[in-house]
Design brief:
Strand content: 5-15%
Structural class: alpha+beta
CATH topology of one domain: Phosphatidylinositol 3-kinase Catalytic Subunit, Chain A, Domain 5
Number of strands: 13
Oligomer: single chain
Radius of gyration: 32 Å
CATH superfamily of one domain: Phosphatidylinositol 3-/4-kinase, catalytic domain
Helix content: 40-55%
Largest sheet: 6 strands, antiparallel
Number of helices: 38
Mean pLDDT: 74
């Protein structure tokens, strides 16, 4: 019907379409075959343009497309049913995944098919399509016919989500950079980027509070701040509300010991008193990006500051929605750009700590780390933990960020800003109360006072490091005089011993700390308990020197190795510390650690490196991991989340509880097998056997990844070992056709050294045979699902100027490495050859030696 009407007479206006339906029945129309074919050919070369009204009807997510079909929907569906009935059945079936849609969208040249697939994108969950966002952005930039059909999808998603808008803006900025070098004028992608940045498609933000608990008819949201130490909270709330904002500010200033002018920071931190609404408050000055203002990440949106009850609310102001997170990321990147100009690593770390303190002046704020998917607010940066990582020419650094979970990042209330130095001193005194009481000496008290002053004034004090190593040391229990004492006996001993009298101030602090810990059900550090209990025995029981020497020897030969802080490599000791202990230690010293929704996250900030290679490798490994899981191949791979901010900067999710093989060899002075024995126990212990199995399964997985993607630069600084024995490869900047400095080293399929084989048990061991079997099974599974892996690389190669695509048709070489022409037996023989050639590779040893003499990386 539509083809006949479109071919014979002009398309009527939209008013006539909507108001007066055309009285034409399909069963009364006879279309001549040759006329139909000519009309269809004409339509296949010239896509039907959509007016704004038709766009609204077709693509609006508020209207059901199945009940109200548009002429465009009918035309594309009828076209596919006539020209490609098989494709239409595939696209409408349940087996049509996002991967198939993206692949056909890239490969097809018919506008009608592209238009149908562009509309098909709305049928899939957002998270599935977000995985292929780099491919969609690359097609939008380099293929105009596809950009026309996916433009509606991108702009619609941008108008619904701030996160999606940020991701699109960062990826467009990164991938447009290459095209702008050769383009003479801006194209549609550049216009889309500026439309997103200037918030032409401003996201609509709505908020409906979520009920987390319903106890005694009192609703508590996840982001509400707890005050566990107050006995009667109702009286305190009434008293607090009775105070005006002026009196509250003056009382806060008196507590600080000096008078301070009323700044915009304190104004934004104050809760709303007596039901005061935002329209009666003075609108602060917009200071986005100014770190000295204290409000560098505040967009002045006050629409949700007086959300009471559970009413649905919407943001109606014109405050920039993307600016806070963009400014937060820009501040992190600017710090990374300054660090390479600082001469030594020690000074780099000091400079980094100072910059982190400046950023803390502007926190808490409604900003978040995008690759952590749970909703959260950044409240503080643990600046004393920030560390510069190993790099010869650049200065990547790792930063530990304190966040609080929330219901809605745009509407949930922020915690009140705390005085950094005051609360850190108070919390430090609380943690050291037991230590002061047990010793009761003025010299120790003087040392503690010096420690407190050093923590708030000198950020890189040796006293802080020595104290933290003492408290967190797992060797602290060697001073225990009774290893067989049970918990009941310890309780009886503590009851029989009369505790020394407490000063009033110390007693109140200790009671507050005990109440806090009991209410939060936090576990007390067992090493600290051991120290406290044994110190009470010292006056009753003597320790023989021989017993001390015996226990010191046992500690030195068993258990995890703790790395000392090295000024030339400060990251080794930082990364070696177990995450749970680091999180507990930072929480105890944080002014926001008492919040029950407090969490600690980490991020690596890199400047001067193109993380688009890393993003491509991440996508490839995610798909491989899914394939191996579905095919029940017991191998281990750990994809690392990547946030690309531009063509030379971004954020990387760090691997927790893992350090590089270079750091292991340099700090432990042991071979890898001896390090395994030291970390995981004897050869027959269950922990050691489990660690070896994890090592073999991860080695097999990364051997396949390195072979398929031809990953280079595999020195020991780019290979990590976690606390469970898994090998994890990082830094995929050189892969496919790119090699370091184009030297052509590392010609082996992947890296497997004699030290790796020694951990497996030798060439004749069962684990070594198991390693080769896993490589074969992993390759067979990857070959079976090659159609899910190839589009990821093929689409990104189109029009790309990345180094990994600079030499020839790399996708052809990737397809050949799946060995589609080999039988299973032939592939098994080929795996044997690849493992043997990699193990005996001369180029691998030459490259390790080159890295040792040029960069000091252990081989």
């Amino acid at each position: 019907m539509f083809f006949r009407r479109h071919a014979q007479k002009p398309i009527p206006t939209h008013n006539s379409i909507v108001a007066t339906p055309i009285p034409i029945a399909l069963d009364k129309i006879k279309i001549i075959e040759d006329e139909t074919e000519s009309t269809e050919n004409e339509l296949s070369t010239t896509p039907t343009a959509l007016s704004p009204i038709e766009k609204t009807v077709t693509f609006s997510n508020e209207i059901d497309l199945t009940t109200t079909p548009t002429p465009t929907t009918t035309s594309t569906t009828e076209h596919l049913s006539i020209k490609h009935p098989g494709l239409l059945r595939l696209f409408d079936s349940t087996v049509c995944t996002v991967s198939i849609v993206i692949s056909y969208l890239f490969s097809t040249k018919e506008p009608m098919v592209q238009e149908f697939l562009g509309r098909k994108l709305f049928d899939y969950p957002n998270d599935e399509l977000d995985f292929y966002l780099p491919q969609l952005i690359n097609m939008y930039i380099h293929i105009p016919s596809i950009s026309n059909v996916i433009h509606i999808y991108i702009t619609t998603r941008c108008s619904q989500s701030v996160d999606f808008s940020l991701q699109c803006a960062w990826l467009l900025d990164a991938y447009i950079a290459d095209q702008m070098k050769v383009a003479k004028k801006p194209n549609a992608a550049v216009r889309l980027l500026f439309d997103i940045l200037y918030e032409k498609y401003k996201p609509k933000i709505c908020y409906k509070p979520t009920i987390i608990n319903n106890l005694s008819n009192n609703h508590h949201r996840l982001d509400e701040e707890e005050n566990e130490n107050v006995i009667n909270q109702d009286d305190d709330i009434k008293t607090e509300r009775a105070l005006s904002q002026e009196n509250l500010m003056s009382s806060m200033n008196k507590k600080r010991g000096h008078q301070k002018s009323r700044s915009d920071v304190s104004e934004r931190s104050l809760p709303i008193m007596n039901g005061e609404t935002s329209k009666h408050r003075r609108q602060p000055r917009l200071c986005l990006g100014d770190l000295n203002s204290g409000r560098a990440f505040d967009n002045n949106c006050m629409c949700f500051e007086n959300v009471n009850g559970f009413r649905r609310r919407e943001c109606t102001c014109n405050a920039p929605k993307l600016a806070p997170v963009r400014e937060f990321m820009t501040a992190l990147i600017n710090i990374g750009k300054k660090l390479p100009h600082v001469p030594t690593k020690e000074k780099k770390t000091q400079n980094l700590i100072g910059e982190m303190k400046r950023m803390n002046m502007n926190l808490p704020a409604r900003v978040w780390i995008p690759f952590y998917k749970f909703p959260h607010h950044v409240v503080r940066i643990a600046y004393t933990e920030a560390t510069v990582l190993n790099s010869r020419d650049r200065a990547p650094y790792i930063v530990y960020i304190e966040v609080v979970l929330c219901d809605n990042v745009y509407a949930s209330p922020l915690p009140i800003k705390q005085n950094e130095s005051k609360l850190r001193s108070t919390r430090s005194e609380e943690n050291l109360t037991d230590h002061i009481i047990n010793h009761q000496t003025t010299s120790v008290s003087g040392t503690i006072g010096g420690y407190l002053n050093c923590e708030t004034q000198s950020l890189d004090s040796e006293l802080i490091d020595s104290y933290r190593s003492f408290i967190n040391s797992e060797d602290a229990d060697i001073w225990s005089t009774s290893d067989e004492v049970t918990g009941d006996e310890q309780q009886q001993q503590q009851q029989t011993q009369s505790p020394p009298p407490l000063p009033p101030q110390s007693a109140s602090r200790r009671n507050g700390l005990i109440g806090y810990r009991s209410n939060h059900t936090m576990n007390i550090n067992p090493e600290t308990q051991s120290i406290r209990s044994t110190e009470s025995h010292l006056s009753q029981q003597e320790i023989m020197p021989s017993e001390i020497r015996k226990r010191l020897t046992e500690v030195k030969t068993t258990g995890p190795i703790l790395f000392d802080r090295d000024p030339e490599d400060p990251s080794a000791a930082t990364l070696k510390e177990p995450w749970d202990k680091k999180e507990q230690r930072i929480r105890q010293s944080s002014p926001y650690g008492h919040l029950r929704n407090w969490r600690l996250v980490a991020a690596i900030v890199k400047c001067g490196d193109d993380l688009r290679h890393e993003l491509l490798a991440y996508q490839f490994m995610v798909r491989l991991k899914e394939i191996w899981a579905n095919e029940h191949v017991p191998v281990f791979v750990r994809p690392i989340n990547i946030l690309v901010l531009s063509n030379n900067s971004g954020l990387i999710e760090p691997i927790l509880n893992a350090i590089s093989l270079h750091q292991i060899k340099k700090n432990s002075k042991l071979s890898l097998r001896n390090y395994f024995l030291r970390e995981f126990g004897t050869e027959r212990s269950e922990e050691f056997l489990t660690a070896v199995k994890n090592f073999v399964q991860s080695c097999a997985a990364y051997s396949i990844v390195c072979y398929l993607l031809q990953v280079k630069d595999r020195h020991n600084g780019n290979i990590l070992l976690d606390d469970e024995g898994h090998v994890i490869h990082i830094d995929f900047g050189y892969m496919l056709s790119a090699t370091p400095k184009n030297l052509g080293f590392e010609s082996s399929p992947f890296k497997i050294t004699q030290e790796f084989v020694d951990i497996m048990g030798g060439l004749q061991s069962d684990m070594y045979s198991y390693y080769k079997i896993l490589i074969l099974r992993g390759l067979l599974a990857a070959r079976k699902h090659m159609d899910k892996l190839m589009p990821i690389v093929e689409i990104m190669q189109h029009g790309s100027q990345l180094n990994c695509f600079s030499k020839g048709n790399v996708t052809l070489g990737l397809r050949e490495r799946f060995h589609l022409n080999m039988t299973d037996e032939q592939l098994e023989f080929n795996v044997e050859k690849m493992v043997e050639s990699s193990l005996n590779s001369l180029t691998t040893r030459v490259y390790d030696t080159f890295q040792y003499y040029t960069n000091g990386i252990s081989k």
